[in-house]
Write a structure and sequence with these properties.
Elements (H helix, E strand, L loop, with lengths): L11 E8 L6 H17 L4 E3 L10 H6 L6 E2 L12 H10 L2 E9 L5 E8 L5 E6 L7 H4 L8 E4 L2 E5 L8 H9 L4 E6 L6 H15 L2 E9 L6 E2 L3 E3 L5 E4 L6 E7 L1 H10 L2 H4 L14
Parallel strand pairs: 1-2, 1-10, 2-4, 3-4, 8-9, 9-10
Antiparallel strand pairs: 1-14, 4-5, 5-6, 7-8, 10-11, 10-12, 12-13
């Protein structure tokens, strides 16, 4: 059953980033992220989304070789106190911006996860969400997360996903059923996946009549070369902003609650969802 939440009372300006982090350089990437946050804030953004594993870069050989230096540590409450992130904390605090950024995280029980860190407007950092759907060889390095998560910014409800999560309609639907107005997806799509990259997240927007903010890495060297295309979609899956397949970009768009309300009134899939959908079926012979 969909949890019923009112539409937000005002618009929310968001930024999505496509960028090329340096493998293993958490401090350098955090400093670069701080610059990107300041750039986005200067264009009015109140929420900034950076790519999957941005702080360490999505580079499995480096992650495997240095599982301590490439990760940040979380305490039992999910809080992160890593001095390498201080420039990013300061940028979020000074600009009054909420940041969602990809990182590799070590948990107190020694689990390693692909996470979306949330840097709040006061500069605090916590693990917002651990990726549930691991892709391919990620399973050799990381453990899956065990729960979904919704980030509250002002009166906007923002569901969190990471890359491969967004390939599963059920993941975006779970966010929508929890009342999400938008779905934020830090990602790392490799060159050659442009068709799927552009289809999945537009589909999640239309499936669930919610905004989608998709961030992606760009550049790098084969076989870890990424294809950009960061995008923001409206609740019908139409593009509000999109990056090119190459080159770093920071894209900004304003999410309008009136668009959310009118779309959900005209396309009432969430309200019309049958509680038994996916239940018992019959088989026919033709």
């Amino acid at each position: 059953m969909t949890r019923s939440y009112p539409a937000p009372s005002g618009p929310l300006t968001v930024a999505t980033v496509q960028a090329t982090p340096a493998p293993g350089d958490v401090a350098g990437n955090a400093a670069a992220a701080a610059e990107l946050v300041r750039l986005a804030a200067g264009q009015g953004a109140r929420v900034v989304v950076l790519p999957e594993l941005y702080l360490c870069a999505y580079h499995p050989p480096t992650l495997a070789a240095d599982p301590v230096g490439t990760h940040v540590a979380a305490d039992p409450a999910g809080l992160v106190a890593d001095g390498r992130l201080d420039p990013l904390r300061a940028a979020a605090r000074t600009a009054g911006v909420t940041v969602v950024v990809g990182a590799a995280v070590r948990h107190p029980d020694d689990r390693r996860t692909i996470a979306a860190l949330v840097v709040d407007r006061a500069g605090g950092v916590r693990v917002g969400y651990d990726k549930q759907q691991l892709w391919g060889d990620e399973r050799d390095l990381f453990s899956p997360g065990g729960r979904g998560a919704t980030l509250l910014v002002d009166d906007w409800r923002l569901g969190l996903g990471i890359c491969y999560d967004g390939c599963f309609p059920e993941h975006g639907r779970a966010a929508a059923l929890d009342g999400a107005h938008a779905y934020l997806c830090p990602s790392g799509y490799l060159a050659g996946s442009e068709h799927r990259r552009d289809l999945y997240y537009a589909a999640r927007a239309l499936d669930n009549t919610m905004f989608v903010v998709f961030a992606n890495a760009v550049g790098g060297s084969d076989p870890w070369r990424f294809n950009g295309g960061a995008a923001i979609y409206d609740p019908q899956g139409r593009t509000l902003a999109r990056g090119a397949d190459e080159g770093a970009e920071t894209l900004v768009a304003t999410l309008d609650p009136a668009v959310l309300t009118s779309t959900r009134a005209a396309h009432s899939m969430l309200a019309d969802l049958l509680p038994g959908q996916g239940g018992a079926r019959m088989s026919l012979t033709g």
